[in-house]
Write a structure and sequence with these properties.
The protein is an alpha+beta fold. 13% of the residues lie in helices and 29% in strands. It holds the Pfam family PRY. It comes from Hemibagrus guttatus.
C-alpha cells in the first residue's frame, strides 16, 4: 500500500559516485552552461547571410548543395561529353550569362556578406535590381554594380557604362559587399585589411539582390558564414 511504499522510498540508499564528505563543484558543471552550449553549437550550425537562388542560375553553373558557392561547369562538360548535363528549364528568372542572384532582395536597411574568391580566375560580385535584363549573354553583365576580375586586372563596373580600373597591391582573397539601402551606398572592402576597394552611390527605386558571376570551373565563389559574437549586458 501507499504507506509501505513511502517508507521504502525514505529508507532507500542513494546511489552516488561521490565519496562521503566530498563536495561537488557545481559551478564547474553548471556555470555558464548556456555559453558552453552556444560555443559548441558554433561548430555544428553555420549561418550564411546570403544563399543563392538556383532558379536564377545559368544552366552551366554548378551550385553547392547548401546554395553558398558557385562555379562554372566547363571542365565537367568536357570530361563527360558522352553524358551531357540535363537541360535546365528556361524560366524568366534565369540568366543567359553565367550569373546567379541571392535568394533575398533588399528594399531598406544595412546588409553585408563576404565572398571568398580564392583562385577563381574570372568573376564579378556586387548587386543588381529585380528588373535587370537576364536574357543578354554578356561576358561581363551590364546591369550590375560590382567589381570584377578578368584573369589579369580588377575593375569596377556599373549599368551606366562606367568602367574603372582598380589598382591594388594584391588581389584580395575575400571581398566584403556592404549594401546600405538607406544611405544609397554599395561598398566593396577587403576584410583582411579593412581597406576600401571601391564604392558606388546610387538611389535604388526597387529591390536589390546580391549578384554573382563566375567563368571559372576550378575554384568556386564561396559565400562565407557569419562569425557569431556575444553581447554582454543590455544593448543601449
Amino acid at each position: 500500500n501507499f504507506d509501505k511504499s513511502l517508507a521504502k522510498a525514505e529508507h532507500k540508499d542513494f546511489d552516488s559516485t561521490v565519496a562521503s564528505g566530498e563536495v561537488i563543484d557545481v559551478a564547474m558543471y553548471v556555470g555558464n552552461l548556456q555559453f558552453k552550449l552556444w560555443n559548441k553549437m558554433q561548430s555544428i550550425i553555420k549561418y550564411t547571410p546570403v544563399i543563392l537562388d538556383p532558379n536564377t542560375a545559368h544552366s552551366q553553373l554548378i551550385l553547392s548543395a547548401d546554395l553558398t558557392s558557385v562555379r562554372d561547369s566547363d571542365d565537367d562538360r568536357e570530361d563527360k561529353a558522352d553524358k551531357p548535363i540535363p537541360p535546365v528549364m528556361n524560366i524568366p528568372a534565369r540568366f543567359k550569362s553565367l550569373c546567379v542572384l541571392g535568394s533575398e532582395g533588399f528594399s531598406s536597411g544595412l546588409h553585408c556578406w563576404d565572398v571568398d574568391v580564392g583562385n577563381n580566375t574570372f568573376w564579378m560580385l556586387g548587386v543588381t535590381t529585380e528588373s535587370v535584363q537576364r536574357k543578354k549573354p554578356n561576358v561581363f553583365p551590364s546591369g550590375a554594380w560590382g567589381i570584377g576580375f578578368d584573369g589579369q586586372k580588377l575593375s569596377a563596373r556599373s549599368p551606366f557604362g562606367v568602367y574603372t580600373p582598380l589598382t591594388l597591391a594584391a588581389k584580395p582573397q575575400t571581398i566584403r559587399i556592404r549594401l546600405d539601402m538607406d544611405l544609397a551606398e554599395v561598398w566593396f572592402i577587403d576584410p583582411a585589411s579593412n581597406a576600401v576597394i571601391h564604392m558606388f552611390s546610387h538611389h535604388f527605386s526597387e529591390k536589390v539582390f546580391p549578384f554573382f558571376h563566375s567563368m571559372c570551373s576550378l575554384s568556386p565563389l564561396k559565400i562565407m558564414p557569419l562569425q557569431p559574437f556575444v553581447v554582454l549586458g543590455d544593448v543601449p
